[in-house]
Amino acid sequence: MTAPLLEVRNLTKTYRTGGGLFGRERAAHVVDDVSFVIEKGATFGLVGESGSGKTTIGRLVLRLVEANGGSLLLDGEEIGEKSDAEMRRLRQRMQIIFQDPFASLDPRVKVGEAIAAPIRLHRLRPRRDVRDRVVELLELVGLGAHQADRFPHEFSGGQRQRIAIARALAVEPELIVCDEAVSALDLSIQAQVINLLADLRDRLGVSYLFISHDMAVIRHVATHVGVLYAGRLVETGEAKEVFGNPRHPYTRMLLAASPSPVPGDARQRQAIAGEPPSPYERAPGCRFASRCPSAIDACRSEQPPLSTFSRGSHQAACIRAEEFDRLTLLSDEEARMSPAYRLRIDLLRRARAESRAT
Ligand SMILES: Nc1ncnc2c1ncn2[C@@H]1O[C@H](COP(=O)(O)OP(=O)(O)OP(=O)(O)O)[C@@H](O)[C@H]1O
């Protein structure tokens, strides 16, 4: 079996703030033991609420910030230890697109020049061919040759994002990290940019780490999904499995809070009650326990077992919630035939009721 394009293993990031002469040093546990893979030509959608650590993971993958632990393998090769010089070469294979392309486009530089700069820097084309390549890239993202001589402010938000995509593609990357790349756009423009990204994936074989807080966007764009809660991945899997059969209670809450994918479906969206814990406070139990409808007392004192990470498979981190679901789905008939199951479900129900009463 060939190696996946990117393999992230047990990635951890803790920021230390304060300290010094008078301040007390504090640790923000922002990313905790995160593992996932991105296959060639796949879009891995990383979704979670604000502050869950999505941007940090994107930056860790590109080594724009350094991890405290874990490893990163690009095409099977460890890149976590590479020197700055080696990383500069590797960065050509990995690009990033931000939410606000205006911030990353110099207002004084014509867009043709902005796209040509990385081609020249990495000497990807002979000088005389650079202009043709810029035109080719503009056309690839649905813009025209005549737009090369305009300045960024002459474009709409959606067009600017297309320019950012063209510039990222200029170095022929294998992986593009899209950090909230469509979040600032109107819905109809969002759909156009998402379709463009999917089209480029099919035509060029590029892969994406697509970061978004919006389940509806992830549903449209992702082939695989990772659901992040307070720095931990609580569920990963193929998109059709995660959306068709979400297993973690947090995934279900995110889905209930997002619009129905069925046109005309008037289902009420349910806001997620409560707040995630601060990264500065890491209690021993499950981070999601205070918001979890299936939580029992034990969840507040110990982390529920994590199912082992295995490549490409659907995994649910919370074995306890899974077991509760499985048992409650048993029909009375099945439960009668299986006294052990019946006993177990009675115990779980009682534990849950007691935990709610306290
Ligand atoms: N340099 C830093 N020092 C201390 N804490 C940080 C630093 N950078 C990020 N954090 C904290 O890490 C947590 C995760 O931030 P991050 O930006 O990765 O989350 P996010 O899921 O991308 O959220 P958002 O969608 O709001 O950008 C936040 O609580 C943030 O305050």
Automatic annotation (TrEMBL):
SUPFAM superfamilies: P-loop containing nucleoside triphosphate hydrolases
Predominant cellular place of this UniProt entry's protein: membrane
Transmembrane intervals: none
Membrane topology listed for this record: Peripheral membrane protein
Keywords: ATP-binding, Nucleotide-binding, Transport
Compartments it resides in: Cell inner membrane
GO molecular function: ATP binding; ATP hydrolysis activity
GO CC entries: plasma membrane
Top-level taxon of the source organism: Bacteria
Biological processes annotated in GO: peptide transport; transmembrane transport
Domain ABC transporter: 6-255
Coiled-coil residue spans: none
Family: Belongs to the ABC transporter superfamily.
NCBIfam families on file: oligo_HPY (TIGR01727)
Record protein name field: ATP-binding cassette domain-containing protein
Species this protein is from: Jiella endophytica
